[in-house]
Amino acid sequence: MKVTVDFDITPEEVRKLFGLPDVEAFQRQLMDDIRDRMAAGAEGYDPLKLFQPYLAGTMASWDMFQKMLGNVTTMAASGSASADGDRGKK
């Protein structure tokens, strides 16, 4: 037996149903802020400076991720070297 149920609800109703926050006002404010910065600095437009306040945390996360990958690779390389040395003793 196969049962199909269709719901005809809007995205806003789904958001309320699951208790998700309404971020539309935040997104609108963020885009307005970006537009204002672009209009104010159109002559000396520098996209990196425009998005720097928003990307600061993101870039720090990437740096931490890269350090973690570097540590994992170092540990894996040193682990495989000691494993190769153990094989020769057996």
Describe this structure in words.
The chain is mostly helical. 76% of the residues lie in helices and 0% in strands. It contains three helices and no strands. The protein is flat. 0% of the residues are buried. The mean pLDDT is 78.
Note the beta-strand portion: under 5%
**Average pLDDT:** 78
| Helicity range | over 70%
Total helix count? 3
Keywords:
90 residues, mainly alpha, 3 helices
How are the SSEs ordered, and which strands pair?
Blueprint: H1 11-18, H2 24-40, H3 47-89
Give a quick rundown of the structure.
The protein has 90 residues and is mainly alpha-helical. The chain contains three helices and no strands.
